[in-house]
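Q: What changes when ZJS is included in the input?
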Amino acid sequence: MKPKITTDSHLLDTVHRHEWKQRDAWRALRILSEFVDGFDNLSDLEPAVSVFGSARTKPGSSEYLLGERLGSALAKAGFGVITGGGPGAMEAANRGAREAGGVSIGLGIELPFEQRLNDFIDLGMDFRYFFVRKTMFVKYSQAFCVLPGGFGTMDELFEALTLVQTKKITRFPVVLLGVDYWSGLIDWLRDRMLHTTKITEEDLDLILLTDDVDEAVAHVIKESEYLRDEASGKKDV
Ligand SMILES: CC(C)=CCNc1ncnc2c1ncn2[C@@H]1O[C@H](COP(=O)(O)O)[C@@H](O)[C@H]1O
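A: The predicted holo structure follows.
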């Protein structure tokens, strides 16, 4: 089946870009309105953590259960849980949060195939543009927790790391859950990127790698407290 054309794909169409000239100007307003909707819906949110992970994680699998436990632990610690609103690891984290009585948020994305928000979301939004949605993940969360995932998950992970490394955001905790899954990547970052000085030791220290949901949540709490103290002037920037 031929994939449906999405709004995002029109924007990124390089072949017909002359034809899109007029329409792209209008598109800018649509993008603006998507930002406004996001700010409007999310600015009153309690402290929240974004959880990322594969859309393909199977319900009942160990990775799904890890996502559920993470969502639940974050909710019990008082954090809202924000995901991409889709299936798999996103659903698992939303489910854990909802079942623990927390606030479960899903920021969905228009895709070329049929897609709806998962069934465990209290506050849901659908975005047309990936980049607008990504702004919301960063702006409205205190930390990123990353479950095993593919390209989409890597994109979200490395965006956060780049923002911290370039000091666009400060001390934003990034936790990778799933030692077995992620340790190959961490080894490569250390042995290749760090070894050839493309990143620094300090950059690697931005990431906590663990299988332990409680350790992940404790880390997020500790970093959030530091940021709160910093904002209230108790700590030097
Ligand atoms: C079965 C399937 C592919 C469904 C796709 N449905 C999706 N719905 C919502 N967010 C998504 C989806 N696919 C990728 N993402 C985004 O990319 C990440 C997962 O991508 P991946 O599966 O690791 O690469 C998620 O954290 C999410 O923000």
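Observations recorded in class: The CA atoms of residues 144 and 174 lie 5 Å apart.
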